[in-house]
Design brief:
165 residues, alpha/beta, Rossmann fold, 4-stranded mixed beta sheet, 4 strands, 12% strand
Amino acid sequence: MNISKVCEKRKKKLLIVLKSTIPIGAEEKFNKYLRSSIQYGLICVPEFLAEGSAIENLLKPDRIIIGEGFGCTESDIKIVRDLHNWIEERNVIYTNTETAQLGKLASNAMLAQRVSSINSFTAICEKTKADIGRLKEIVGSDKRIGEHFINPSPGFGGSCFKKVC
């Protein structure tokens, strides 16, 4: 059954929480396809999960982003915030949906650049007498860069996890 029909039948507001990486402006698609008789709110809460540590990333995230979108109210934001009640308030970033969506894309791009860079340095090390392990130590000890995600790997990105309502 179409979600629009269910909402019309029950006469309840629908709260749509977007968790996936989506293009900026996806909110307009919802406005276009949902019936105008449906009351709904849209919130974007992108996930930041690393392959192999997704559960740990969910339980102890660096931050969560709550992007307020179309039809969203303070009580909607409170519902979403309460769903993440184990996360300290200092680790919650409130913004609009566009900034939340772009934040996810920008984080992915920065991480991809980081992995791509260390892979390039690995190739140089393989052609010279340089030691990638020591190079990682040198680069990782720089407080501006840090030691995380500077391991050579076959690629970057990961598979999406199935979402269940």
